[in-house]
Amino acid sequence: MTDQQTTARFSSGPWRRLRSLRVRLIAVFAAVALTTAVSASGIAYWLNRDAVLKRAQDTALNDFRVSLSRNVSNLPLNATCEDLNALASTVASSGLSYDVVVSDPALPNCVASSNSAQYTIASVPAALRTAVGKPRELTESNPYTYHLYWQRQNLDGRPFVIGGTKVVTTGPTAYMFKSLENERADLNTLGWSLAIATLLALIGSALLAQAASATVLRPVKRLGDAARRLGEGHLDTRLEVEGSDELADLARTFNRTAESLHGQVEELSAREAQSRRFVADMSHELRTPLTAMTAVTDILEDEAESLDPMIEPAVRLVVSETRRLSDLVENLMEVTRFDAGTAKLVADEVDIADLIMSCIDGRAWYDAVELDAPRGILAVVDPRRLDVVFANLIGNALKHGGSPVRVRVREEGDTVVVAVSDSGPGIPEDVLPHVFDRFYKADKGRARSEGSGLGLSIAMANAQIHGGSITAANGEVGAVFTLTLPLTPPPPADDTAEESAR
Amino acid sequence: MAGIPVPGRAADGTGAAPGRTVGGDSPLRVSQNEAVPFLLLIEDDDAIRTGLELALTRQGHRVATAASGEDGLRLFKEQRPDLIVLDVMLPGIDGFEVCRRIRRTDQLPIVLLTARSDDIDVVVGLESGADDYVVKPVQPRVLDARIRAVLRRGERESSDSSVYGTVVIDRAAMTVTKDGADLQLTPTELRLLLELSRRPGQALSRQQLLRLVWEHDYLGDSRLVDACVQRLRAKVEDVPSAPTLIRTVRGVGYRLDPPA
């Protein structure tokens, strides 16, 4: 069986249930019980059957022989049919209820029977007649020419033992019919009793298996539940260890594993929190000198033209890099806020078309962007955050894809879909999965571009806080970034807006 | 990949107030009715204080500076500035507390200078009575635009008055009375009330109010409106928690109900 098949078998419901430990245990117990009970009953039945039948037929045959040998001597030579009939009746009346048929080769048409309505010579099996009529050679160990033979035979559906013998060579042959009906009834009763006993044993064994599986499976189920809780992130899950069997060992191992996992995860998250705090603190600390620098950049910029041509480029560099640095720090702050989960929506109902228009107008992109946005698509969003998203997607398209950049807005169900497509070369397939990663730059040759490397990841985080998302793909021409937003953000974000409104 | 323009400090031009040309062409232009706006800058960091003082002076303001909340409050009482630019993180009494203490007696405009745009800070700042806020590091021209927009709110306009129950709005005198007693409103609160009363019974969205009162661009922070409405209700409503005058229109914004 291939691995795939195994997986398929285990994953499908009915199979799983059929292969469950409980079912297997019950099946094994039942099989063992069944085999034991059936073989024991079978042996008992056959032994009993043998003994009962043997005793019944031995008694009957002995009696028949004794009665026959006593009465056959009274038979006159050249006996008539009446004589034979009388012999049959006499032999049969010995007390044991059997019937006798007598036949004589000298009188082939004579039907001599103690109960001629039921038993005639025709009722005697041919094999028995042959055996009875065949003389044996006299030896030392065999003093008689003729023997008593018997055979069990069903006549009209009723069991009989039929015995037959010849007393003297020229004399008649006598057959005995002894019904075994009583014995059969007894044996049937015995059979039924044994079957019922087997059934009871089977049921008992199933119950026993159920009980046994419960004692084994309850701890296994507890272990399974605990493992699932652990997987769900409840790292403080522990098992109660009972007894000292293998399952208790397993529980102890589980507890130790959970303990060590808990410790490791705690250590990891502590370290992560530490490094996050470091980034947050660092951004804060950078902000103070940056604020002072930014405050005077305007002055420097205004005066740059009147400065020494040697100094002017230096001043302009300081001005532009200060702005870049403050953008970067601002983005870092934003990222740390998302990481710490302190970013909140300040939601307001706005027209998406207006919002995009103002984003494009504000950045003087109007000539480079083809906007296809019907008015009247109202969504409850944080306009500031959404502006960040649009500015990023459009700015990115302009920078890497080139104009014309097309922005298409559509309402689809209870979401609004904004597709930003450019006319550039598109995004290489190997880069596509990483475009939303932090500090990931598509063009490795250009180690330092105008972007901070955080833009798209911040855009994504901003979309996600609205309950939406952004996808990147390659269209027919250029790259397509698609923003999908619900018209109303998920409830928790809405609460803050409502509360502050009151 | 792409750098994102930081809101409130967006790329050149967007943060500027309408009706004012941005740039260095007339750096000494001042508002119409005052000679030169007199600002008090309270900021503990020497570099930022010096930098902002330089920049604001260059934008045509007269600037006094203080390095702590205590100094700032003292200077405020001595020199009576037109507007206060207030840092939030101050040693000793912090910016929020300074704001609250000033609001007890005076209604002059206060612009918060916050080092963190963490939401809770902004909300606390607005609740303590600030009129507007900017996030560090702020470009001087953005700060200047905000300052001028706040100062414009106190300017007089057409002369008529309207009555809303026990509240009387006198546009000529720029006063509001309730049961005959003068209400102490900040210029922002007053402007908000005036804008609402100009369109009685009509709901105005938060974004509309931001443009009308704060002169923000489309991306203004609607919490400014919410905080200001709350403060205004506390002053003009009989029961601020059950407003009958300034009503919230769910999903839209606010509405001033015409006198019954």
Topology readout:
The complex is a heterodimer of chains A (502) and B (260).
Chain A: H1 3-11, H2 13-18, H3 21-72, H4 81-92, E1 99-104, E2 107-113, H5 126-133, E3 149-155, E4 158-166, E5 173-179, H6 181-231, H7 246-304, H8 312-340, E6 348-351, H9 352-362, E7 369-372, E8 378-381, H10 383-401, E9 405-412, E10 415-421, H11 455-465, E11 469-474, E12 479-486, H12 491-501
Parallel strand pairs in A: 7-9
Antiparallel strand pairs in A: 1-2, 1-5, 3-4, 4-5, 6-8, 9-10, 10-12, 11-12
Helix pairs in contact in A: 3-4, 3-6, 6-7, 7-8, 8-11, 9-10, 10-11
Chain B: E1 38-42, H1 46-58, E2 62-66, H2 69-79, E3 83-87, H3 95-105, E4 110-114, H4 119-127, E5 132-135, H5 140-152, E6 161-164, E7 167-170, E8 175-178, E9 181-182, H6 187-198, E10 204-205, H7 206-214, H8 222-236, E11 246-249, E12 253-256
Parallel strand pairs in B: 1-2, 1-3, 3-4, 4-5
Antiparallel strand pairs in B: 6-7, 7-8, 8-9, 10-12, 11-12
Explain how this protein is built.
The complex is a heterodimer of chains A (502) and B (260). Chain A has helices at residues 3-11, 13-18, 21-72, 81-92, 126-133, 181-231, 246-304, 312-340, 352-362, 383-401, 455-465, 491-501; strands at 99-104, 107-113, 149-155, 158-166, 173-179, 348-351, 369-372, 378-381, 405-412, 415-421, 469-474, 479-486. In chain A, helix 7 packs antiparallel against helix 8 and helix 8 (312-340) packs parallel to helix 11. The longest helix of chain A has 59 residues, at 246-304. Chain A is rod-shaped. Chain A has 3 domains: 26-187, Beta-Lactamase (2-Layer Sandwich), CATH 3.30.450; 265-338, Helix Hairpins; 344-501, Histidine kinase-like ATPase, C-terminal domain (Heat Shock Protein 90, 2-Layer Sandwich), CATH 3.30.565. Chain A has a 5-stranded antiparallel sheet. In chain A, strands 7-9-10-12-11 form a 5-stranded mixed sheet. A two-stranded antiparallel ribbon of chain A has the order 6-8. Chain A is α+β, with helices and mostly antiparallel strands and 502 residues long. In chain B, 50% of the residues are buried. The longest helix of chain B has 15 residues, at 222-236. Chain B has a 5-stranded parallel sheet, sandwiched between helices. Chain B has 2 domains: 38-152, 3-Layer(aba) Sandwich (Rossmann fold); 161-256, Arc Repressor Mutant, subunit A (Orthogonal Bundle). The model of chain B is unreliable at 1-34 (pLDDT under 50). Chain B has 260 residues and is α/β, with parallel strands linked by helices. Chain B is globular, with a radius of gyration of 18 Å. Chains A and B meet through helix 7, helix 8, strand 6, helix 9 and helix 10 of A and helix 1 and helix 8 of B.
